[in-house]
């Protein structure tokens, strides 16, 4: 039977990362993936990633995928696409459906990196066409260039729900509401703020009562829920919508691991059925590893590191790397992983209510329930300062492992410090050149350049802008505040695009002086349909 | 929890469940102890669903024929469930003259017992099932055979027995039996002790380990069989199928999916009998077997496969017997892979035996003490 | 596993619910009401529910409904969701045509 040193199932971020490490140490490695292109979910990810340089921070997901593929090819990894692993049997034998045959191969080691599938939540009409997973929406938009619908209601306020809602708007869809039964937004506040300032209403402590329509979705009714997640009668609201996007979490696709005989456990914090593993991802079956979402739902950055850890460990176990080098490499990788698993959104904090930041500042309740920092709360945070002349305003209020803004400024105006989860601090003494690199580097689009002394009566606000068509200098429109409300007229005074910004455009608008700390988005029209969509039923 | 009953049944498969139902119907207080977490976890829900008389050992024919005449046709009403019983005949297919010789022998022995079964030629086979390939040159045909849904049948007996007050306990692995004052009295599990005057052991191959504790054994082995199921397909045929070469068996279910079973020929020689029980060669082997007979199914998709154990008894028929030397002990095991179709009748007979009634057909052939050395 | 599970224990009567018509297993079109009723028929495990109703036995093999079925069974039987063992993983992991399975390399 054909034998490899290492068989990897899944060519997503963790599988490819594992392959790069293992092949780099000289292991004969094959990666099987059922899809026609590699990269797993990475090629759907058009947003910039969080983290530090080591974690590919501020790089868009699909570019990370391209880098991984180049690395894998340089390392001599054999990637077999449209190749479905249909089973794992005794003696680490796998069967692969490929090119109209079933192939039998054995691996001295196996790394299962099959990722996760989307959860569903049933409600009346959940089986109507038009109810889709958020991942499916991403596939349609970002891989195939197809708009999933015109008017979309998003269920789920985790990062997937928030990021995909923004991408839906980028694709030209209208997001009529973002709904979640939880009382607080689950994903990063900065992602929520991007939606809120565009006018997307958040309905926390709400759930979908029913999807309307006979052969496809034509509307949605939502209701408020109490602490026990029971619907409160009389609180129904109706929205016209043709699409309901469901982003209510992921489940590890761990069936292959279970079939291989691994000891499994039910761990709601890790998303469901996961294998019991050691710190290197090795399961109870010697030589069978699990890496990435299949061993517990996190995100692509940690999946990549987990893959590298398992790949390195497998190489060591099979005698392809010395103990000394293995320890050195694994120590570095484990530190990278630890730094990602810190902060308010760390896996260990799942389900916990956090009242204060690491700095001891009260967490914004407005951000957690409405998606934006209120004007009363904003000045608590160390990234917000008011001073003469041009300066950055960093509306970053949650401890997230992320620091590209610090590296972006050549004049040391922004400081995150040693602790990657600390809130960025703006140095009031440093000079701002207005280069805009910090604005473009912030994956959460939470940095603005403000000049309250732009002219006699006006202030300038520079904001990140990722929509088409791009406004032009001289356009007269309106400014929206953090809540998405139209607060004043605004004139576009500068539009900057640069390869260094990586497709984040910098739009500068002129607003009345008293709006400098309020205006946070630009609209060419005075209202959108979203604001008028929600109605009582 | 009450741990005393008139009858304790060890094993929650079709035999245990059917016996529990017929005993409960007679007003007996029954406790069923099942070692696994699921009712019907063994061959009872893993078999191919055949409800056949043809192809059986003549010693089994009286009981199975009685069941097909008297129980199966009314089982839906009896159990208030749809067990998907379909009595549209059984084709046992042959592709070579050697196959036809095997089939002829089976047919001759069955007709001698009064079963309506006959040999038919390729043309007659095609009239019954036009989807069969030209490789088929003949078959045995038994029009009163058929198939049913094994999972639904096993669980329907469970449901109905439970409604009649039979007590079922899963996850209760029996480790031994104990006599008291010369009679069987106690059933010892890993965690508890149960008591009854009569105990039926119907725990498949594992029965050996249980009855051994009172000095009784049944000469049987444990052998793997694998089954597979397709996605739902348009209705093609409704007979039960088997072959002279035993390369596959199966039927199309009411749901539309095809359920097929078979073996690879390597059974019995595996290194380990525990742990991962499915292997990678069985399903491809069964598929190759089927496609020679049904080329039209080449694009049907297999959605699932599973493995089960059969418990071949040394002489090919089960033990269903009172054990006089251990008063109170009854056995029902060693069904040799034919336990489903005969299951309802077996349960009916066993309930009669346990209640000291005269069974509707003679059970002498199934005695536990029939086994003798060959010379 | 192998926890002692007395199938005679009282789980209360079956009370019809407003969502009983809602389809839970889309592949096999099994409703919430059918699943709830099956629990009252004595099907206390995920494996028994599958064998009794076919839910999770269709093309997706329960990928979509497994968690939903589990929470319904847990709610109805009073078992903690974590104690309900998921169904056995069975090859093939994706539906495969018989002609492909028959053609080994």
In brief:
Chain A is of the alpha/beta class and 537 residues long. Chain B binds chain C through residues 1, 35-41, 45, 151-152, 155, 158-159, 162, 167-173, 190-192, 229-231, 255, 278, 281, 283-284, 287-288, 290-291, 297-306, and chain C through 1-8, 41-45, 47-48, 51-52, 54, 57-59, 61, 85, 88, 90-92, 95-99, 101-104.
Describe the structure.
The complex is a heterotrimer of chains A (537), B (375) and C (105). Chain A has 537 residues and is an alpha/beta fold. Chain A contains 12 helices and 29 strands. Chain A is globular, with a radius of gyration of 24 Å. Chain A folds into 3 domains: 2-117 and 251-340, 3-Layer(bba) Sandwich (FAD/NAD(P)-binding domain); 120-248, FAD/NAD(P)-binding domain; 372-532, no CATH class. Chain B has helices spanning 14-25, 61-70, 75-79, 97-112, 122-128, 150-163, 207-211, 282-293, 343-354; strands spanning 4-10, 30-33, 50-51, 90-94, 118-121, 138-142, 146-147, 167-170, 174-180, 183-189, 193-201, 223-230, 240-243, 249-252, 258-262, 301-310, 319-323, 329-333. In chain B, strands 1, 2, 8, 9, 10, 11, 17 and 18 form an 8-stranded mixed sheet that branches. Chain B has a 4-stranded mixed sheet with strand order 5-6-4-13. In chain B, helix 1 (14-25) links the parallel strand 1 (4-10) and strand 2 (30-33). The longest helix of chain B is centred in the first third of the chain and has 16 residues, at 97-112. Chain C is of the alpha+beta class and 105 residues long. Chain C has one domain (23-101): BFD-like [2Fe-2S]-binding domain (Arc Repressor Mutant, subunit A, Orthogonal Bundle). Chain C has helices at 32-40, 46-53, 66-77, 98-101, and strands at residues 5-6, 23-25, 30-31, 96-97. In chain C, a hairpin with a 4-residue loop joins strand 2 (23-25) and strand 3.
């Amino acid at each position: 039977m054909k034998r490899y040193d290492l068989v990897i199932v899944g060519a997503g971020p963790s599988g490819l990362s594992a392959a790069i490490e293992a092949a780099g140490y000289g292991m004969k490695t094959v990666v099987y993936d059922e899809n026609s292109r590699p990269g797993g979910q990475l090629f759907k990810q058009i947003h910039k990633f969080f983290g530090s340089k080591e974690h590919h921070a501020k790089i868009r997901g699909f570019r990370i995928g391209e880098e991984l593929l180049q690395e894998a090819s340089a390392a001599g990894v054999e990637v077999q696409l449209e190749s479905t692993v249909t089973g794992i049997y005794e003696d680490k034998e796998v069967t692969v459906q490929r090119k109209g045959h079933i192939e039998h191969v054995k691996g001295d080691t196996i790394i299962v990196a099959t990722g996760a599938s989307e959860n569903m939540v049933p409600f009346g009409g959940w089986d109507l066409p038009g109810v889709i997973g958020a991942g499916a929406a991403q596939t349609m938009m970002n891989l195939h260039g197809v708009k999933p619908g015109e008017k979309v209601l998003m269920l789920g306020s985790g990062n997937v729900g928030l990021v995909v809602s923004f991408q839906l708007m980028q694709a030209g869809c209208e997001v009529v509401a973002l709904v979640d039964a939880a009382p607080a937004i689950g994903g990063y506040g900065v992602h929520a703020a991007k939606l809120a300032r565009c006018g997307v209403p958040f309905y926390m402590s709400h759930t979908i009562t029913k999807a309307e329509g006979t052969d496809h979705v034509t509307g949605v009714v939502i209701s408020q829920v109490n602490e026990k997640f029971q619907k409160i009668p009389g609180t129904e609201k109706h929205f016209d919508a043709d699409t309901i996007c469901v982003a209510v979490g992921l489940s590890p696709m761990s069936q292959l691991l279970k079939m291989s005989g691994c000891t499994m456990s039910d761990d709601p914090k890790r998303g469901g059925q996961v294998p019991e593993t050691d710190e290197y991802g090795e399961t109870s079956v010697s030589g069978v590893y699990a890496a990435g979402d299949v061993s517990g739902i996190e995100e692509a950055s940690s999946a990549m590191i987990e893959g590298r850890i398992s790949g390195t460990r497998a190489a060591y176990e099979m005698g392809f790397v010395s103990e000394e080098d293995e320890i050195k490499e694994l120590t570095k990788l484990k530190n990278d992983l630890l730094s990602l698993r810190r902060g308010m959104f760390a896996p260990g904090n799942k389900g916990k209510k956090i009242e204060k930041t690491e700095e001891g500042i009260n967490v914004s309740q407005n951000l957690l329930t409405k998606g934006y920092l209120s004007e009363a709360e904003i000045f608590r945070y160390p990234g917000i300062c008011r001073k003469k002349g041009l300066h950055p305003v960093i509306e970053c209020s949650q401890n997230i492992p992320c620091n590209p803004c610090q590296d972006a400024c050549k004049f040391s105006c922004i400081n995150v410090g040693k602790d990657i989860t600390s809130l960025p601090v703006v140095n009031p003494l440093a000079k701002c050149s207005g280069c805009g690199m910090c604005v473009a580097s912030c994956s959460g689009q939470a940095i603005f350049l403000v000049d309250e002394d732009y002219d006699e009566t006006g202030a300038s606000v520079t904001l990140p802008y990722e929509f088409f068509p791009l406004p032009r200098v001289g356009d007269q429109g309106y400014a929206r505040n953090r809540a998405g409300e139209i607060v004043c007229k605004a004139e576009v005074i500068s539009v900057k695009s640069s390869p260094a910004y990586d497709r984040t455009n910098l739009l500068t608008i002129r607003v009345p002086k008293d709006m400098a700390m309020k205006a946070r988005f630009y609209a060419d029209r005075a209202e959108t349909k979203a604001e008028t969509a929600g109605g009582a039923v | 929890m009450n741990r005393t009953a008139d009858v304790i049944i060890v094993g929650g498969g079709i035999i245990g469940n059917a016996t529990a139902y017929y005993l409960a119907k007679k007003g007996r207080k029954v406790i069923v102890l099942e070692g696994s977490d699921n009712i019907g976890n063994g061959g009872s829900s893993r078999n191919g669903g055949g409800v056949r008389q043809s192809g059986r050992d003549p010693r089994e024919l009286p009981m199975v024929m009685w069941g097909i005449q008297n129980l199966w046709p009314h089982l839906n009403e009896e159990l208030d469930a749809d067990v998907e019983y379909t009595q549209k005949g059984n084709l046992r297919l042959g592709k070579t003259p050697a196959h036809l010789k095997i089939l002829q022998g089976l047919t001759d022995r069955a007709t001698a017992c009064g079963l309506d079964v006959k040999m038919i030629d390729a043309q007659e086979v095609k009239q019954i099932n036009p989807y069969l390939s030209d490789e088929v040159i003949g078959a045995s045909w038994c029009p009163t055979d058929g198939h049913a849904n094994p999972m639904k049948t096993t669980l329907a007996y469970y449901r109905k027995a439970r409604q009649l007050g039979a007590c079922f306990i899963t996850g209760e692995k029996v480790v031994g039996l104990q006599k008291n004052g010369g009679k069987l009295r106690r059933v010892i599990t890993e965690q508890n002790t149960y008591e009854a005057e009569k105990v039926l052991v119907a725990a498949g191959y594992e029965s050996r380990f249980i009855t051994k504790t009172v000095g009784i054994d049944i000469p049987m082995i444990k052998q793997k069989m694998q089954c597979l199921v397709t996605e739902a397909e348009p209705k093609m045929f409704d007979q039960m199928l088997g072959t002279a070469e035993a390369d596959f068996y199966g039927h199309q279910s009411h749901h539309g999916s095809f359920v097929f079973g078979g073996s690879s020929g390597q059974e019995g020689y595996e290194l380990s009998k525990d742990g991962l029980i499915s292997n990678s060669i069985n399903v491809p082997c069964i598929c190759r077997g089927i496609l020679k007979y049904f080329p039209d199914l080449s694009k049907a998709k297999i959605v699932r496969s599973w493995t089960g154990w059969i418990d071949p008894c040394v002489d090919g028929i089960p033990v269903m017997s009172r054990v006089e030397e251990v008063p109170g002990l009854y056995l029902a095991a060693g069904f040799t892979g034919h336990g489903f179709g005969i299951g309802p009748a077996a349960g009916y007979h066993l309930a009669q035996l346990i209640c000291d009634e005269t069974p509707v057909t003679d059970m002498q052939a199934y005695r536990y003490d029939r086994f003798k050395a060959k010379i | 596993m192998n926890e002692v599970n007395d199938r005679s224990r009282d789980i209360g009567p079956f009370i019809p619910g407003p969502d009983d018509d809602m389809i839970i297993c889309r592949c096999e079109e099994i409703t919430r009401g059918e699943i709830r009723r099956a629990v009252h028929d004595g099907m206390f495990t995920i494996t028994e529910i599958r064998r009794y109703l076919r839910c999770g036995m269709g093309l997706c093999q329960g990928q979509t409904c497994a968690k939903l079925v589990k929470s319904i069974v847990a709610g109805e039987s009073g078992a903690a969701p974590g104690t309900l063992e998921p169904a056995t993983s069975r090859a093939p992991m994706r539906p495969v045509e018989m002609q492909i399975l028959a053609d080994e390399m």
